[in-house]
Amino acid sequence: MADAAYFTDNGIAYLIGLADTADVLKYVAWGTGATGAAVDDDAMETAAAPTNATAGTGTLAKATTNTADDTIQVTHTITAGGALAITEVGFFNQATLSGAICAFHGTFSAINVSSLDSIAFTLKSVFNQA
Amino acid sequence: MEQVGKVMVKSTVSAVLTKADGTVIDLGVICGSEHEQTPKEVTLWNKIRRILKNG
Fold first, then answer.
1. How far apart are CA A68 and CA B45, in angstroms?
2. Which of A31, A82, B10, B21 is the most exposed place for a label (fewest CB within 10 A)?
3. Of B33, B35, B48, the CB nearest to A19
4. Mutual orientation of helices A9-22 and B43-54 as an angle, nearest 10°?
5. Contact A119, A56 (CB under 8 A)
6. Phi-psi bin for A28: left (phi > 0), alpha (psi -120 to 50), beta?
7. How large is the average pLDDT for residues A89-97?
């Protein structure tokens, strides 16, 4: 028998289920930073209005991509109050960004928005056995 | 033969832009990454554990 050790698919589903039940990783902010996201990011680079200090309350859900409940997904729509070039988005464990845990950070080519334009974001992480 | 488990985390952002005049533009997946979970890259798992522990 081979020596082997795995964190199982059921283990992944259990942890994601706990995150889903806790329902705290759902606060979404956008921003205008210029630096690419990295795994050790702990905040937005330049959070922008209307989420410059307080993130919006999104919707957290578990989902299935490859195996049952292997995916965390957060959705939220943010409406601009003025012209912005949006380049980053993230989700957090609390609305107040100061001191919040940045659990997800994505950066991308600028999306130019004007007053009353809105972006509906879907932020998704899939945990999959390699 | 030793087998070591790995967990890959693939993260993506999708976006739909709605202009003030009502025009809807589906931008699709606007960014994404895939990285192997290693001792230095268990950030999200650690954050989940911290949140579950501390609320």
1. 18
2. B21
3. B48
4. 50
5. no
6. beta
7. 98
- Structural contact between residues A74 and A26, judged by C-beta atoms closer than 8 angstroms: yes
- Quick check: B15 and A39 CB within 8 A? no
Percent of residues, chain A, with pLDDT higher than 90: 92
Q: Which residues of B touch A125 (CB under 8 A)?
A: 9-11, 44
Question: Does B3 contact A at CB distance below 8 Å?
Answer: yes
Q: Are B7 and A116 in contact (CB under 8 A)?
A: no
Residue of B nearest to A116 (CA): B20
Query: How many residues are there in chain A?
Result: 130
Q: Whole-prediction pTM value?
A: 0.86
Q: CA A25 to CA A20: how far, in whole Å? A: 8
Kindly provide the ipTM of the predicted complex, given to two decimals. 0.94
CB pairs under 8 A between A and B: 119
Sequence-distant (≥ 6) Cβ neighbours of residue A70 within 8 angstroms = A9, A12, A13, A16, A64, A126, A127, A128
Q: Which amino acid is at B3?
A: Q
Tokens representing A28 are: 């979404």
Indicate the burial class of A94 (C-beta count within 10 angstroms; 0-12, 13-18, 19 or more). Answer: middle
